[in-house]
Amino acid sequence: MIDFLTPYLGNQLAFFSWTLIKVLAILIPVTLCVAYLTLAERKVIGYIQLRLGPNRVGPKGLLQPFADVLKLLTKEIIIPTGANKFLFVIAPMLSLMPALAAWAVMPFADGLVLSNIDAGLLYVLAITSMGVYGVIVAGWASNSKYALIGAMRSGAQIVAYEIAMGFALVCVLMMSGSLNLTTIVETQRTNLGLLGWNLIPLFPMFVVYFISGVAETNRAPFDVAEGESEIVAGFHVEYSGTTFAVFFLAEYANMILIAALASLMFLGGWLSPIPGIPDGFGWLAAKVAVMLFFFLWFRATFPRYRYDQIMRLGWKVFIPVTIVWLVLIGVLMRMDWWPW
Amino acid sequence: MNFENLSFYLFAAVLIGAALSVIFSRNPVHAALSLVLAFFTAAGIWLMLEAEFLAISLILVYVGAVMVLFLFVVMMLDINLNRMREGYWNYLLPALIVSGIFLTELIVLIGGRVMFNKPADVPAAITSEGNTLQLGRLLYTEYLYAFELAAVILLVAIVAAIALTLRRRKDMKLVSSNEQFSASRESRLKIVSMPVEGGRREDPS
Fold this sequence. Notes:
The complex is a heterodimer of chains A (340) and B (205).
Chain A: H1 6-9, H2 11-48, H3 64-74, H4 85-101, H5 120-128, H6 131-141, H7 145-176, H8 181-186, H9 203-216, H10 228-231, H11 241-265, H12 281-301, H13 307-335
Helix pairs in contact in A: 2-3, 2-11, 2-12, 3-11, 4-6, 4-11, 6-7, 7-9, 7-13, 9-11, 9-13, 11-12
Chain B: H1 3-24, H2 28-48, H3 52-76, H4 81-84, H5 88-116, H6 124-129, H7 131-140, H8 144-165, H9 177-182, H10 185-188
């Protein structure tokens, strides 16, 4: 395909523009998914609470996300007095950038990946660990007490849960012996289908990873950074219009990212759960959708955790559990007591 | 000039700009954020040198964890800049001497190699197998004891840091989690049946 560009643009420019096209081919669907995830969230929570959810804009409310986006884009951006203008404006971008950059190494099917690098998992960990800056900078630059408190809470929470998340991923890479996301999926391929996935031997790690993921994305029940009943809206209390929309986009893009990573590393990515049925992108999409449904379900079901309980869960429960499982997996692998 | 050179000069310019801004910015939060930018661009340059593991761990450790805690502290402290700038001229001379010595040492150590010899190409084994794999293999075989020793020293440092700063406050209102978990309905709540005063009379069952 790239050959068709080379005569017009020359080698380097053709490569550059071809990569740009591939980037857009990932980012536009991700953004559309974010748009419909917001609608799905309102619909799912609506049905859980015995309401109908939005159903006015377009057939069955299907155009609601676009109405929301238009509304947010036309609103005025208010910069508070005494706020640091440059940091205030750049903070939403700081939180969106990692959420989108991490998709560069995400494989969608065998060979269907923008950049198939060997240290893919490390790259994802490193890039997502930068997302916290958007929150902290936003809280500080707003020159507001509520925003600063929200930023502090979120920062402490993300640092705490990142460790548990990292250890859970160490177990995954021990199982597959690689940091490359495509290899991680391919090592889960057995002729047993679902039983070969990392989910079975690493089930506690899957739970730890997913709950840490919910905490990392600041979603309910770990949304103390927003905590609208205590600190109004936390770090984004002063944001309006487009800047708020960018924060919103980052949060939902991060949710999809966590769901996709969980499906790749624990649920076998694009592999089919039943032997005999062909693999494909559809399976990955279905798994991501199920994981995203869990996010929404959690939000509709659990009350918000108290702050000290969040810290306790992160440091005193998850980290010891992951270390114990790490040693256990190590011993099992060393002794070759592997049932499959 | 190809794409690689172009991005190197871009990264280098941003890195030097960020590093200067760490020193010269008057606001400590800006300085800390500039340091983050400096780390990030340094990681970019390392990535171009095919040192992917080093680059990614720089971002993961320094940008993702250390600098976050730094920013925390800087934001919480109300730093009085005027007091920090006192005695600038007194410190200038010793600072210049120390940095002069640093600079000479750096030039002697690295400068000669870079200026007069063409830098060697990256060994083929590293580019074909990937830097992460090679590094891991070396660390866990040849340098295992040094690696473990470093890990133990770090562990001792963590424990020492916690032991030095841990003070039990007398007036702390923290409730122990055991107490919270063992709370039962019987200990907190009592249902008493009372006679209804007037109005509609309902069966208590």
